[in-house]
Amino acid sequence: MTSKVVAMLLAGGKGTRLGELTKDIAKPAVPFGGKYRIIDFTMSNLANSDISTVGVVVQYSPLMLNKHIGIGKPWGLERQTGGVSVLAPFSDREGGSWFSGTADAIVKNLNYVEQFEPDELLILSGDHVYQMDYTKMLDFHRAREADATISVIEVPMEEASRFGILNTNEDLSIYEFDEKPEHPKNNLASMGIYIFKWDVIRPYLLEDEKDESSDHDFGKDIIPKLLLDQRLLFAYRFDGYWKDVGTVASYWEANMDLLKEDFQTMLRSKTWATYPNEENRPPEYIGKTAEITNSLISSGSFIEGRIEDSVLFTGVETGGGSDVKSSIILPDAVIGDNVILERVIVTTGLKVPAGTVVRADGDEPVVLSEGTLGDYMGKGGGKNA
């Protein structure tokens, strides 16, 4: 199977809605879940699905992402044939430019795809958290001899207008695609995971590239054109956990989800492992004054104080008398003595002075960074958010 499938993992998004979390790194490279980065979940899905030809398309702030992917060793993709390739925008004799859309990113890497002479093209996003066996979706696609298959997930009806909604017949064949409809007909939302017959999709991509009015996007442009031409498209239902961590609130929620018993299989599964590319750190140290409840504590951490319902990444230090609740502490952050944090995301390497008090006020968690720390420092050692 793997020799017939080329996976293109789109990992070039700016992630501007994540604010300080994506100030210097691409969204897929943002730390997640204590020892991972967001992209590790999709990379691990590929490894577990035995798909070994993977192009990772990067664009904005790619340095950390390039370093993290490397030659793909954590995911078993260090191969002479196929394997993983990091694909960045480039300039040729006709000049070059940023990728202008998801479809454009594939067209500009057409030579990469064509060298493998694939039967199918698998399009994935690098900024979603989920565990999925792509071989089951491929089997579904092939059994129906579909020209394209789109993975869908049921979302709450009141949230359906935020997504691309697929309207289907009883056999899950697609007859209509609504991009963020005001009055959705159902709640089957596109997950941005596509399988295309390569010989079918290739001419559509080339034609779309010539269309100056197009956004060169699979959802907005390519899928509607396939439907207009009455190509055979199917929806593939996915019933597992899936989260688009596109905002600060959803990023916080997805990390907190890992602390719930129902979602522990995402990290503990022996049959579907999530592989990190982690540094070699010493074991975590839990001090005499430490009280830890329902939290993830990662290697290299030095813990004193009270930690409750929180996710602490590698190399984190928390001081005596500190109280960290429902918070995310990113790698190598240092929390001083007698610090109180509640629903706070502390950015990588930040040193939070002793006595600082930060509590989120409202639905949005507080992102504490070099740029915002001063807002919470008062004469009394700190103030509430």
From TrEMBL:
- Which top-level group of life is the source organism from? Bacteria
* EC number assigned by the record: 2.7.7.27
Q: Which residues form the Nucleotidyl transferase domain?
A: 7-260
- Reactions the enzyme catalyzes: alpha-D-glucose 1-phosphate + ATP + H(+) = ADP-alpha-D-glucose + diphosphate
CDD domains per the record? ADP_Glucose_PP, LbH_G1P_AT_C
The answer to whether UniProt assigns keyword Ion transport to this entry is no
Q: Name one GO molecular function term.
A: ATP binding
Where exactly is the site Could play a key role in the communication between the regulatory and the substrate sites? Answer: 59, 98
The pathway this protein participates in, as annotated, is:
Glycan biosynthesis; glycogen biosynthesis
PANTHER family for the chain: GLUCOSE-1-PHOSPHATE ADENYLYLTRANSFERASE, GLUCOSE-1-PHOSPHATE ADENYLYLTRANSFERASE-RELATED
Report the family membership: Belongs to the bacterial/plant glucose-1-phosphate adenylyltransferase family.
What's the name of the protein? Glucose-1-phosphate adenylyltransferase
Q: Which organism is it from?
A: Salinicoccus sediminis
* GN (gene name): glgC
